[in-house]
Amino acid sequence: MASRRKGRIVAFQTLYAWDISGNLPYSSALGGNYSADNLPAGSSGRENDFVDMPDFSRLLVSGTIENIKPIDAMIRRHLENWDFSRLNRVDLAVLRISVYALMYQIDTAPSIIINEAVGISKEFGTDDSYRFINGVLDGIRKSLEASSQAGSVPETSKKVEASSVGRSAK
Questions:
Q1: Per the confidence metrics, is the pTM higher than 0.90?
Q2: What's the pLDDT tens digit per position in 94-106?
Q3: Which of 27, 76, 110, 152 is most deeply buried (CB count within 10 A of its CB)?
Q4: Closest CA relative to residue 15, chosen from 119, 124, 122, 127
């Protein structure tokens, strides 16, 4: 499994844990302040388990939580015949990290982001999750592309390049 794929899975699991914990401050989500009962799958249970989280995962989690309002607004606008509050928490976590990537990570192709989201939802979601996630993300992709072509910028703060993660400023 590629390291970016692993990073997306770690980010998805961390964001899911953050959501079910009642939205602890994101520094807690990144710092590993979880009990053994609500650690993401595959965690060792050490107090600082997420301190070693790969930079890519940290970027996805912190970026998603810092931009949660515009991300959730984008998801809401693209739900057809579905209420946001009824979203499965697993699906919501996958959608959130994926919408963050679509909106803010300019160096990653939308097709890669959507394919990874579909793969994660097949592994962790319900039998129909991947279809639902694919449809919502494709609608968001089209909306962002149309906004980009029209010269308008969606509700975003600043775009980041994932390739710069882990590089220190000199």
A1: no
A2: 999 999 999 999 8
A3: 110
A4: 124
